[in-house]
Prior knowledge:
With about 230 residues, the chain is mainly alpha-helical. The chain has 13 helices and no strands. The N and C termini lie far apart (about 65 Å).
Amino acid sequence: MATAPAHDGAYSFDARVAVEHVRASDPMLARVIDAVGPFRLQLKRAASSFAALAEAVVYQQLSGKAAVTIFARVCALFPRAPAGLTVEQMRRVSDAKLRAAGLSRAKLLSLRDLARHVTDGGIPTLAEARRMEDEAIVERLTVVRGIGRWTAEMFLIFRLGRPDVLPADDYGVRKGFAIAFKKRALPAREDLERRGERWKPYRTVASWYLWRALERASNARALPSAPRRR
């Protein structure tokens, strides 16, 4: 179902109710919740669907630092447009300038295709998306070259604040699940989705805590070991 819209960084659901539901539904995940603490998903604001999705395309398959650098270079091509990228800007800028900013040819083609679909009315505006069901949004977005289900799910979570999204192909979610549930191997998509049935209708919250489980484990490994006594 579509949910109430998220505005000004607010979730489209009651986070306290969601966390308690997930905690009560899964004792294993409850341990992660207790260790991590309050739910603090940070929603990202955007001027338009195009701006949000264009940023997502640029960030795909890059480390955080590299993605930030390249996206900043792309935005710097339009110094008089601080509100975010627009279709009109994308039409005016040359392929050569976008490539010089660090975009791969595949991402350049994705941005061009995204602009075309927005112009044709195939991509919902943010206001329209807030009234749509999750799967309908996924179907609309994934017709764009280079935008797959994962990118659409990130849009649902971090732009719209939807409560019941489980990105079952996301490495961080899968690795976090393996850590939280003490598995040696990453779970198959089917196994993760099966466990996720008990987290409904707040699978976004469960996903966030699985990301945090991986984060905590990574931070623990990064800590220097205590010096040995001689």
